[in-house]
Structure formats: structure tokens, C-alpha cells
Amino acid sequence: MHVEVTTPTQQQQRTFIQMRTVLKVVDNSGAKKVMCIQALKGKKGARLGDTIVASVKEAHPNGKVKKGKVVYGVVVRAAMQRGRCDGSEVKFDDNAVVLVDKQGQPIGTRVFGPVPHELRKKKHVKILTLAEHIA
Amino acid sequence: MRIEKCWFCSSTIYPGHGIQFVRNDAKIFRFCRSKCHKNFKMKRNPRKVKWTKAYRRLHGKDMTQDSTFEFERKRNRPERYDRNLTENTLKAIKTIDKVRSRREAKHIETRKKGKKAQLMREAVKELEQSISLVKAPSVLKEDKSYTLPKIKVKVSQAEAKNQPMEE
């Protein structure tokens, strides 16, 4: 069982989600960890709310998504801070992703943990309705 | 729009200021400025950092219990708009603010009360202990004006006589 540290030491400078960033998958699609292979927007990489292309590195044995598949995902939590519409900033504990298909519909049926309300702006209302907490 | 309180120093955060950190259990930590955010990252306890409101409250520096704090409670139910209510609230804000500042001043006054006696005690002690810095001890023996008057205490018990040594 992987034990989560509640407040990790954050001395590391957090940066964009770029090629080879490993992200946690926080839905029940069957994948556990994915590695980013392409950010669909932005030169430097993906940030909170952006869509990425990823390859599944770890998966549950009988899930919808198998290891080695190339999938699309929405970054729902990012450790790098992101400006909000009012000028303040928000950041999260870890880098997490929710797998979606090409049309933007989530593959899983549940979303775990907090997600930012900025997903509404990005037209991912479905993820917001599935989410437990909205920050 | 809501004016939030900083998690670390309890100051108000106006919209567009500061940064917020969302932990994985969805607890939101809001910080008014990078100073507070950095102190949080260093895992400092706001109760142990002297400039925070938490420390001042804990150590009796600030007024903690007062009926005026009741008005500043967080309410999650939005109030239906009512012009009269708004007007009354705006009036009340001024009065409440006046009352609170008066009570806070009084709190500080009562806190200061014991200070004078304490200063006196410290001054007496310093005079006794370090008068030799001003006057040499030999001078003091002749001129008594630099020392405090000695209070004579009678010793009731008679001194035991020295027994002659036995050969």
C-alpha cells in the first residue's frame, strides 16, 4: 500500500508537466500511473487544466486501460502554481490526471480527490460533476 | 467574492491576493503573501511564531473573547438582498468598529498595569548589583548616598561560643 505523506517537503522548484513527467491517475479507468509524452497546448508543457497525451506505465490487471496504451488525459492537479482569474494562485500536492477520450469524455466513472473549478472554463464539466471536492 | 483569512498569520486576504495550497484531502490553505507561504513550507507552527495572530492570542497579547467578534463570523448561507438591511449593516459596522477599538485599548491598558511595579523592582535590583560600576566599593563605605538604606534586623538567637580546641 502506497502511503501518502500529507504535507511533503516542497523545497523542489515545481515546473510544467512535460515529456517524461509521471502522473498519478485519479479515476477508475484502470490505469495507475501514466507518463506524459506530449502536451497538447503550450510550448513549455502542460499546466493545471491542460490536456496531455500519455502512455500508461502502470495499470490494474483488469481495468479498461491496459499498460502501454497511449491515452489522453486532463491535468486535474498540478504541484506548480497556476494563476486564477482573480489574480491569486492555486497549487496542489501532486500531479494527477483524469483519462479522457479524444472527444474529452472521461473514460472512468469516478474521480478521486480535489479538482480545480477552472475545469469548467476548459469545458470539462463532466469531470467536475464526478469530483468529490472542488477547490 | 469573499474576504478570507490567512492560514498562517490570520490577516485578511482580499480577492486576487496571495496563493492557496490544496492538500490531497481537499483542505485549502490560504496565504496572504509569500512570507506566510514560505513559513508554511518550512513547517513552522503559527502558534510559535511571534508575529502571527495565533501567537498573540495564545499568549494573552490580544483581546480574545469579545462579543464584537461574533459579527465577523463566516456565514455560508447568502443573505437575500434587502436595501434596509444593507444600510443598517453599514451603519453597524462603524459602531462595532468603534466599540471594538475602545475595548482593545482598554485591554492593553489592563495589560500594562503590572509593568510599573515590575520596572521598579528591576531598577532596585540593578542598583544593588551593579552600583560598583559607578562607584568603587571602597568609596561606598564612606559615602552612603549611593546605596539603599540598610534595614536592621535583630537576631534573636545568641551566637554559639567558640569552644576551645582540645589538645
Terminal CA distance of chain B reads: 99 Å
Number of strands of chain B: 4
Largest sheet of chain A: 5 strands, mixed, barrel
Give the helix proportion of chain B (percent range): 25-40%
Q: Can you write the helix and strand succession of chain B as a string? A: EEEEHHHHH
Quick one: which chains have the greatest interface? Answer: A-B, 23 and 16 residues
Rg over alpha carbons of chain B: 30 Å
Averaging pLDDT over every residue of chain A, what do you get?
90
Q: Flag low-confidence runs of chain B.
A: none
Spans of chain A of 5+ residues with little confidence (pLDDT < 50)? Answer: 3-8
Number of DSSP helical runs of chain A: 1
Question: How widely separated are the two ends of chain A?
Answer: 27 Å
Main sheet: strands, sense, barrel of chain B: 2 strands, antiparallel
Q: From the alpha-carbon coordinates, what is the Rg of chain A to the nearest angstrom? A: 14 Å
Q: Largest beta sheet of chain A: what is the strand line-up? A: 1-2-3-4-7
Overall body shape of chain A: globular
> So what's the oligomer here?
heterodimer
Q: Strand order within the widest sheet of chain B?
A: 1-2
GO cellular component, one term (chain A): mitochondrial large ribosomal subunit
GO molecular function, one term (chain A): large ribosomal subunit rRNA binding
Keywords (chain A): Ribonucleoprotein, Ribosomal protein, RNA-binding, rRNA-binding
Protein name (chain A): 50s ribosomal protein hlp
Describe, in short, the structure shown:
The complex is a heterodimer of chains A (135) and B (167). With 135 residues, chain A is mainly beta. Chain A contains one helix and nine strands, in the order ββββββββαβ.
